[in-house]
Specification:
heterotrimer, A alpha/beta (342), B mainly alpha (315), C mainly alpha (284), B: mainly alpha, two-stranded antiparallel ribbon, C: 284 residues, mainly alpha, flat
Chain lengths: 342, 315, 284
């Protein structure tokens, strides 16, 4: 018995050593919003460059910001850009800064599970704010029924689903609600983790989608691809020009059109409730958070290599997963910014 | 001089070396435990300074405003554990009585074997079953059964989400039953025979002798098993976070979603930016630790007292 | 009159005792239900791919959990290397060398450690191992699980060593063996079965732990090499896949659940059979 145990230990130990091949492992963590495209990218990139393994863990933007600040991962990802306090905290801790690199454009959509309703409902900003504030409690409330004449909405209680973890998707959603509802701004405000008035918490975009899918009469906010991949209906939202717009490549791209030319140097910008007749009002960039300095030169070069690839080849595959490409001007600016990584 | 020489001489003696080595390892255990407690205490200083005892009675958990109150999590932990006990204690004690008093020894041992295996099932598997079986069951069967006739009671009011306090309580109940059964069974078995026989000789039925004589005799030990089960329920993380709804709110209805201490730590620990946020979570961990520590200590005391009583009275 | 009362009491007695039987059957049935459900859902999902392939990108079907299976194995191995020696040697100290005062302090510390909720152990391991070294790693996870193995190993080693009859001890010493030789060659082998059982039970207990791994081993899309990289593990994969909306991931979660439960139950059954085959020497 002891001999068997000894041999087993020996074999396992050998495996651990022998299997340690030369691939460089780069660890990242953060947003679930772009996880489908990131996991595809890293998979494709690894096939093209077997020497690099990008291990991305989808744990939420909040955790992404925290762990990259702690230094336990090599890069982070978030759809809520780091605020000034967080940037300062990073600077204080590391004595160099951290850079934001936009990767794709995506959209938060209101997705729901109402038995018998398979159409795309029209949501006004007031309706959405009311639902998530807990003031609009039934599906057949006039605020919802008004723009949806002809749809048979039940008199059922709305089950609100939000994120239980720190989330950039939440940041985008609450950023939008703060812009369109003073009550929301005063009561809840915007952030990656807020004090929700009502609702259940799901972990990650995955968890929210899962809860909405399984819970009748539920409504949640998720990135577009999660609703599409799981075949759950999602609604249109009334934009600042008054049109009800559905989230898709065109409407999301239109939302970014305004800022493309005036993108700030650090790439932190909000495009919710953007002007434009065809713009989808709850769109956003999502960013990779890359430290400005790397001790390990091979890691630095690997990341820079990936970023260049992402800005050229990578952009060609985003549309298949319903993300919109970055505007040309932004891509050009980013290519220059890569040189800031030392 | 002569002292150190004899120390070196002792060292050459194999016994002393072995004694020292094993002492070091034993001391490591104490060191690790002390380090754990110290880390918990030291790393939760900020909320202690900022909120003081208010931490335990505030129900706002707002990371943006840096307001942290532990009440919703303490409440959720308590309520789910209470539901778990309400279900598990009658079932568990009933089963223990059967195993200790009625079943022939082989049947008793075999059944106990299976129950011990139940205790070994990992928590995440209970969570898996909770999500795919208990949650739909709650929505389709249990909620209508309780809400239609009793919906006027505060604990059964309101809509059902599938997830919530009661769902978590049911899953916890399944997890803690084995602890109640195995400890109660042992405690009941240690009740001396003459207690039973005296009751039967006086003309009581089997049930009466069990319920009115044996069980009261073992009462403190059974209490101990309940405390053990409670301690397990309090610390349970994965199964709870998968079915409780993750909502830091206090609600009277058992069908409402809630949160527990262990669940919020699991969800928010890796993303708590800001020292106050992180330390508030660690403070919650400290609270949980203290609760389970007290309960485990009491449980042990009660069980020891009962089994000693049994051996003394047996003579 | 009396007859009627007696009949009622007898009825109550039979009824209540039958109810206790029902309680026992229900409790045991839960186990079989869990097993059956897992076998059904997991069995249909287990295939060769599950054991040999890496996970696929989000939304794509197929792939497996080969990295998580290996990862769990590595972490459990290292956890045993950390936890078992401390528990075993510490137990020897308590049983053979220590005075009453020291013994009760060590025992108390072990009992305290045993009662710590696993999520709190995760916090401890994060502060102690992940932060200073600045990365999530297999050894951080192993540290957390290893600590959890210590109390069971320690207490059981002490108990089983103490239960070895004095005759054996005194016999060996009468033959001129030194203290430590007696321990190594007579007492420990005599208590071997019990100690082995305890180690296996401790292993089974930590094999299913998820919470401490969330902040220590974290997760890895690929196989982790060596010990200092984030590592995928079975329990964490089950959790991640179960709360997701993808049906294919649910399928894989069931399969993983079956594998994990199977592993834990096999270790448990093995441990208990070893113990029930009898201690090497009858207790006095």
């Amino acid at each position: 018995m002891k001999r068997i145990a000894g041999v087993a230990i020996g074999v396992l130990a050998l495996c651990a050593i022998v299997l340690a091949d030369n691939a460089l492992l780069i660890n990242g963590a953060g947003a679930t919003f772009p996880y489908p495209i990131y996991s595809k990218w890293f998979d494709v990139y690894h096939t093209k460059n077997p020497n690099f393994q990008f291990n991305y863990q989808s744990v939420g933007s909040g955790a992404g910001i925290k762990q990259v600040t702690e230094g336990t991962v090599d890069f982070g990802a978030s759809d809520g850009p780091m605020n000034d306090d967080q940037l300062k905290a990073y600077q204080d801790k590391h004595s160099f800064g951290i850079l934001h690199f936009p990767t794709v454009l995506g959209a938060d959509v209101p997705t729901y599970n109402i038995p018998g309703v398979n159409v795309a409902l029209n949501f006004t900003p007031e309706a959405l704010a009311g639902i998530f504030l807990g003031k609009v409690t039934k599906w057949n409330d006039p605020a919802i029924a008004g723009p949806n004449k002809g749809v048979n909405l039940p008199a059922a209680d709305i089950v609100v689903v939000h994120r239980s973890d720190g989330s950039g998707t939440t940041y985008i959603w609450t950023d939008y609600l703060s812009k369109v509802s003073d009550e929301w701004k005063g009561k809840v405000n915007k952030g990656t983790s807020v004090n929700w008035p009502v609702g259940l918490g799901g972990k990650g975009n995955e968890g929210v989608t899962g809860l909405v899918k399984q819970t009748p009469n539920a409504i949640g906010y998720v990135e577009l691809i999660y609703a599409v991949q799981n075949n759950i209906p999602y609604g249109t939202v009334k934009n600042s020009s008054g049109s009800f717009v559905k989230a898709d490549l065109a409407s999301v791209t239109a939302a970014a059109a305004g800022v493309a030319k005036e993108m700030p140097e650090d790439f932190r910008v909000s495009i919710t409730n953007a002007p434009g007749k065809t713009a989808y009002p709850i769109s956003s960039f999502t960013w990779l958070l890359i430290p400005q300095k790397f001790q390990d030169a091979s890691k630095r070069d690997a990341i820079k290599g990936f970023l260049s690839w992402m800005l050229s080849d990578g952009q060609n595959s985003v549309e298949t997963l319903s993300y919109a490409k970055l505007p040309k001007e932004v891509v050009e600016k980013e290519k220059k910014a890569i040189n800031n990584i030392q | 001089m002569s002292g150190s020489r004899s120390f070196l001489a002792k060292l050459r003696n194999g016994d002393e070396i072995v004694r020292l080595i094993t002492l070091i390892f034993a001391a490591t255990v104490v060191l690790i435990t002390a380090a754990l407690v110290w880390e918990l205490w030291a790393n939760s200083a900020l909320p202690r300074q900022k909120f003081g005892l208010n931490f335990f009675v505030t129900s706002v958990w707002d990371p943006i405003m840096d307001q942290f109150g532990a009440l919703p999590f303490i409440y959720g932990t308590m309520v789910t554990s209470a539901v778990a006990l309400v279900i598990a204690v009658p079932l568990g004690i009933g089963a223990a009585i059967f195993l200790a008093e009625l079943a022939p020894p082989r049947v008793s041992d075999t059944l106990q074997f299976f129950i011990d295996l139940l205790a070994a099932v990992p928590s995440v598997i209970y969570g898996l079953l909770g999500v795919f079986i208990v949650v739909p069951l709650m929505r389709t069967v249990i909620y209508p059964a309780l809400n239609k006739p009793f919906g006027y009671l505060p604990i059964f009011k309101g809509p059902s989400y599938g997830v919530g306090f009661m769902t978590a309580g049911i899953v916890l109940a399944i997890m803690v039953i084995p602890y109640i059964i195995s400890v109660s069974r042992e405690v009941l078995l240690s009740v001396p025979r003459d207690q039973r026989e005296a009751a039967l000789a006086l003309g009581s039925t089997r049930w009466e002798s069990t319920w009115k004589v044996v069980v009261p005799f073992a009462k403190t030990g059974i209490m101990g098993s309940i405390f053990l089960a409670l301690a397990r329920a309090l610390g349970e993380t994965m199964a709870v976070t998968m079915v409780i709804g993750n909502t830091p709110k206090i609600a009277a209805s058992l069908f409402a979603p809630g949160y527990s201490i262990a669940a919020v730590i699991a969800n928010e620990f890796t993303e708590a930016t800001g020292d106050l946020y992180l330390q508030s979570l660690i403070a919650l961990g400290l609270v949980l630790f203290l609760l389970t520590f007290i309960l485990n200590g009491l449980a042990r005391l009660l069980i020891v007292v009962t089994t000693q009583k049994g051996s003394e009275a047996g003579g | 009159m009396m007859d009627g009362r007696l009949r009622w009491r007898k009825f109550v007695s039979n009824f209540m005792l039958a109810m206790t039987g029902v309680c026992a059957i229900v409790s045991v049935l839960v186990l079989f239900f869990i097993l059956g459900y897992l076998l059904f859902n997991g069995g249909t999902s287990i295939n060769w791919d599950f054991f040999t392939k890496l996970p696929k990108p989000v939304g794509e079907t197929g792939g497996g959990m080969s990295n998580a299976i290996v990862g769990s194995g590595k972490i459990l191995l290292m956890a045993s290397i950390i936890g078992v020696p401390i528990g075993f040697l510490g137990g020897i100290y308590l049983a053979e060398f220590s005075g009453k005062g020291v013994a009760s302090v060590v025992r108390y510390a072990a009992d305290l450690l045993n009662g710590v909720p696993s999520i709190v152990i995760g916090i401890f391991a994060y502060s102690l191992v992940v932060l200073p070294f600045k990365h999530f790693s297999a050894y951080a996870g192993a540290f957390a699980l290893g600590i959890m193995m210590i109390p069971i190993t320690l207490r059981s080693t002490e108990e089983f060593l103490k239960s070895v009859p004095r005759m054996l001890r005194e016999g060996a010493m009468a033959l001129g063996a030194s203290r430590w030789k007696t321990i190594a060659t007579v007492i420990v082998p005599a208590a071997y079965r019990g100690i082995m059982t305890a180690i296996l039970l401790a292993l089974a207990r930590v094999a299913g732990e998820t919470a401490p791994l969330l902040f220590t081993a974290f997760g890895n899309r690929f196989e982790s090499h060596g010990w200092s990289q984030p590592t995928a593990t079975l329990p964490v994969m089950i959790y991640t896949y179960a709360v997701s909306p993808y049906d294919d991931w649910h399928r894989q979660a069931w399969a993983a659940g079956l594998v994990l439960l199977g592993l834990v139950l096999i270790i448990n059954i093995l441990a208990r059979t070893i113990l029930s085959r009898g201690i090497a020497v009858p207790r006095s």
